[in-house]
Design a protein that fits this description.
Layout lengths: L7 H23 L6 H12 L3 H8 L5 H10 L4 H22 L3 H20 L16
Helix pairs in contact: 1-2, 2-3, 5-6
């Protein structure tokens, strides 16, 4: 957790944002176009700066905790999350190009954002790297 002294108005604002992002993340579980993980990552970030209690609650949550802890401690994105993320971005682009009727500059801008997002997600490790101590030599 981040330890720094923040002014009470800033802590309250971050606390409010943490709950807002948590709510959006939960809604994202049920709405396929609303992403869950990015909102929960934002919530963890906000709570790390405003409330030790709720930061701990999210990190120890039975469903979301392992993913959030892996990200916070090691910047790891599991393979399944990478597949879902890139597939969702690709599906959104197919829909934009094929059926949305959006203007080409908008489609190009969304394509650029999706490309940057995909490169970022794919550039992160998929599992934690744990150093394995060398085996002792036999006498």
């Amino acid at each position: 957790m981040v330890d720094f002294v923040a002014s009470p108005p800033r802590r309250w604002a971050l606390f409010f944002l943490g709950w807002m992002f948590t709510g959006l993340g939960v809604i994202g579980i049920f709405l396929p176009l609303l992403p869950t993980t990015p909102f929960l990552l934002l919530a963890v970030w906000c709570f790390a700066r405003s409330s030790r209690r709720f930061h701990s609650w999210l990190l120890n949550h039975s469903r979301f905790g392992p993913l959030l802890r892996d990200w916070e401690q090691h910047r790891v994105i599991p393979v399944r999350a990478k597949v879902v993320s890139v597939t969702s971005m690709s599906g959104a682009m197919v829909w934009m190009v094929g059926w949305s009727g959006a203007p080409w500059p908008g489609i190009a801008a969304m394509g650029a954002v999706c490309l940057v997002g995909a490169v970022y997600v794919l550039s992160k490790p998929s599992k934690t790297t744990t150093a394995v101590p060398p085996a002792p030599e036999a006498p």
